[in-house]
Protein 1
Amino acid sequence: MTFLNELEQRIGQQHVLTGQSMQQYLEDWRGRYTGTAVAVARPASTEEVALVVRLCAEHRVPIVPQGGNTGLCGGATPDNSATALVLSLERLNKIRSVDIDNDTMVVEAGCILQNVQQAARDHQRLFPLSLAAEGSCTIGGNLATNAGGTQVLRYGNARDLTLGLEVVTAQGEILHGLHGLRKDNTGYDLRNLFIGSEGTLGIITAATIKLYPQPVASCTALLALNTIEDAVQVLALARQGLAASLTGFELIAGNCLQAVLHCYPDQRMPFQGPAEKAAWYALLELSDSESLEHARERFETVIGQALEQELVQDAVIAETIAQSKALWHLRESIPLAEKAYGKSIKHDVSISVSVMSQFVHETDKALQEAFPGLENVTFGHLGDGNLHYNVARGTAFTEEELLKRQDEIYTLVHDSVHRFHGSISAEHGVGQLKRQLLPRYKDPVALSLMKQIKTALDPLGIMNPGKVLPD
């Protein structure tokens, strides 16, 4: 019996896709990576995932786990050998339980993030992970890359929001770790080992995630700024005045919002005059547990201080939920506008806030000296030091010409990140995009330990080969 015949027997013929029916699973969201596969398997339970993995181990078939296929580093795309099985977790989409007293929820890996957020709201709770792709990305993918998003400043990354995991190992065994304990020191922290491993050590099939009380009130403001230095000082004011109530602080270059307005004319800039085309913007959000009046008073005090110190050109505070959503919609539309303009060279980097402005100025200058006419598309989560320092073709290059210079641009930017003691991957993962860069920037002892862990947990090397670890 062939591998495909056995696979169909284990999970049903209709859930084993071949030929044209699997095309949507073979290309990444950005359109940068396209691969081939022997088939796409769509199991419906953890037990079926384990059956598939055991079959793949028996036949030495590589496995490429895939969630919502919204990744930006090619981590869920197979190579061109046509030997791998894409294992889609989209049918594992149940919310298994909600424990209000413990403030936890058990969700399967294929649950869409937006659906998890809504399920929390249905129980008067908050699940704070929030991403631009939340309408299509899945919890499994969020955990596989240790996703961040816009509220890391207050709540942390996906890893910080997770208490327990259920994982299918490379041998097809099931690790039952879905406890909701906040303290468990019985040995090594296997949960954190699998989170962020991008399916190279095992397949996350379910997770116990943390819930929080819903805020009584929230306030959102968009500030027009002259410089990144001003943004850093406003962040310091906001941290001092709002403390843990500050849930979001986004930095946005002016050309990012101009691109959004060009691509989506139904959206509007809330400013008039010079602030309509400011060099930089900051998007702030406060969540308050007391009242709207209390939240508004604290918010206005901080923004008033920023205005008095001339750190801000102008400020708009949302008066309604609809206005707040419109401000966030501007921010969340930036990746879509980028895509509409064509392929760009993306950098998801982490830099200490204290040297963020220096990094941007020096790297901008070096790029323009090396490649005159390129356009920087810079935005990100200033509150936690995560910058999406992207490079577009501008008016000087075609898309093809830009991509030919990709390796040179990566080296220039990542060398600058390394010089400032930053990280070349903050929240998007490594995937196949950055894996060969790790020997240049990763501590050699750390890289050696990572390879030893991979060998120990996946001795056959079938779990998402060609991702994360360099050759």
Protein 2
Amino acid sequence: MTVVLLLSGCGSSGTDPGKPAGPVAGLALEPGNGAGDVNPTAPIRATAQRGRFDEIALTNADGKQVAGELSPDRTTWHASTPLGYGGTYTWSGRITGQDGKSVPVRGQFSTLKPDQTVRATVNPIDNAEVGIAMPISVKFDEPVKDKAAVQRALKVDTSVPVEGAWAWLSDEQVDWRPKNYWPAHTHVRVSADLYGVPYGDGAYGLADLTTEFNIGRAQVVKADVRTHQLVVERDGKQVATYPASYGEEYDPGRNTPNGTYIVMQKDPVEIMDNPRYGYRNVRKTWAARISNHGEFIHENQENAWALGKVNNSHGCINLSAANAKAYYDSALIGDPVEVTGSASTMDPGYDVYDWLLNWDQWTKKSAA
């Protein structure tokens, strides 16, 4: 709301020609003088009417001036940085009117004080190089009620056109993924202008977020459990085939379920536990996690006799030590792993299940 303050004194009524007229200068403030609960990201402006600013300042309760820009003709000033939550701001300065008379600039307003500010994080991080199935993930420390307001503050820019959409995987996480895998070597910039965004129930965004990252080469793992082989394709060409052992086919608890996964994490050594099947603290090397359900691609030299012949693992994809390291060294976080031919299919419900949903299912999770 803009309020115009007439800064003149008592104007002439025309009945007393001997009495001097008051100053003609006026002041328009946005937000208006005395306004409360102003969003700190709202436009903050002061406009001199029938005159120009000699000086103009907006200060917080500590007396620190807010950064701003004065127009070349010295008639308009606007804040160039967001304000703080729960603050009181005071205008000061002077305007010289067209009549040559000087008048003071006065006014005050206060910004809203959230009941709660909510922190968010974004992944991938700056300068990361990731695989062609990597989703963009924004996670919040608390559940978000007004998802549509948050989603309107999110933007994805790409170096080449890429069709994609946001989807809420939970009340605390919204992901963006392309309809199909990312084109190789795409540069991606994400801006999440969350500061000042109302999340609902008195909660607001704590800070803006940005990240820029790059998509690497196009590497896809084809994991057909019926073949007992793990096939690696890069930029459309097959570059490796490794004898493998997948999950036991006749025990649903030990299947390697169908689904498109991504490489989530890489560790040269992984300590594995599965009390249901009686093992703890099993040390395996060159482990690439593909699901928080418990599936990895990893070395299992002790099971060398079964590789390429029998599926007898507890759900992971077993390779020889040499082949596991070769695959591990080739993999990027975000590479897709397409498992097919299994007796069961993974339910979409674990941390990274973006590619377990088809495009229609994905877009229905948007709040837009």
